[in-house]
Amino acid sequence: MDGTIALFLIQDGITNGAIYALLAVALVLVFAVTRVILIPQGDFVTFGGLSLAALEMGRVPGSVAMLLALAAGAMVMDLVAARHDFRAKRIGAILLRTLVPAGLISGAVVLLAPLQLGPAVSILLTACLVIPMGPYLYRIAFQPLARASVLVLLIASVGAHLAMTGLGLVFFGAEGYRTAPLIDANFQIGPLFVSAQSLLVIGATVVLLVLLSVFFGRTLIGKALRASAINQRGARIVGISTELSGRVAFAMAAAIGIVSAILIAPLTTLYYDSGFLIGLKGFVAAIIGGLSAYVPAVGAAFALGIVESFSSFWASAFKEVIVFMSILPILLWRSIWSPPHDDEEE
């Protein structure tokens, strides 16, 4: 291997690591606020990429039906929770916050999709379709289990992922799709040929990470999420709704999934089940970073991307094995040096 090849591999590793960094941040955020290890995080990426590809082709994406199904499920959960107070005003409020927004979004997508109004509109419609899936998913699968153990929440997360993967096959089919690059240009930097899309991936990741830092440090909602992450009981005592915090965290995770989908869909073909492998690499980075701090998770994600890139050059058949085995020394070290601790008492 010469220096030029090494530079190419590092470039690819940084590009991939930028995506893994976004997913790792989303996983750390959701786990810190809700104690949920969000296995379906990669599914948000898949639904976002496939929805954007369908809109670019002038087709109504299958995520319309997915959104309506999740909204209907959330409505049923709210109606069951309000079964002892079946007043017309209460039922109307439930419909207004569950089924009505999903219906309006779906109607807009059905009307606008065949018009092919351009990338900006397609991205906006994709975001409107996928971001609400986060809070709906939280309401259906995780809010009823909010006080359960981490193991129970993990089992629920695996079940949610399997359900979303199956529905993805039903709504999108088995065929894979790519989207058009947002910037179709190439640059030469020394011996490297760099695509504008790769630079966009890295730049957008850095900008989003900075915005998240400002959000958590300067805004009231961000500080409320931090309070919920530090101590849920204390957050409830001072009037912070942990249920609202959970919905906001899941919405932010879905939004990060949309950004990831927009960035990587032009670079790789996405299938209905591609999200599991993508999300799993973000999960490995989050675990290496401690699943509790954003900066170590981001650093681990970039390191993981570089390891994956060099592994694909030296031993492409064992690339995934090497990537996932990188977590073993970290887990072994922590099992030896970190004392066990119980979940926070509710």
Per DSSP, the total helix count is 16
What is the percent of helical residues?
over 70%
Question: Based on DSSP secondary structure assignment, what is the total number of beta strands?
Answer: 2
Biggest sheet strand line-up: 1-2
Summarize model confidence as the mean pLDDT: 86
SS content category: mainly alpha
Strand residue percentage: under 5%
Global shape: globular
Question: How many separate domains make up the residues?
Answer: 1
Low-pLDDT stretches: none
Summarize the biggest pleated sheet: 2 strands, antiparallel
Secondary-structure element sequence?
HHHHHHHHEEHHHHHHHH
Distance between the termini: 55 Å
Radius of gyration: 21 Å
What keywords describe this structure?
346 residues, mainly alpha, two-stranded antiparallel sheet
Detailed description of the structure:
The chain is mainly α and 346 residues long. The chain has one domain. It is 73% helix and 2% strand. The protein contains 16 helices and two strands. A hairpin with a 2-residue loop joins strand 1 and strand 2. Helix 2 runs antiparallel to helix 6 and helix 3 (63-81) packs antiparallel against helix 5. The longest helix is centred in the first third of the chain and has 32 residues, at 3-34. 41% of the residues are buried.
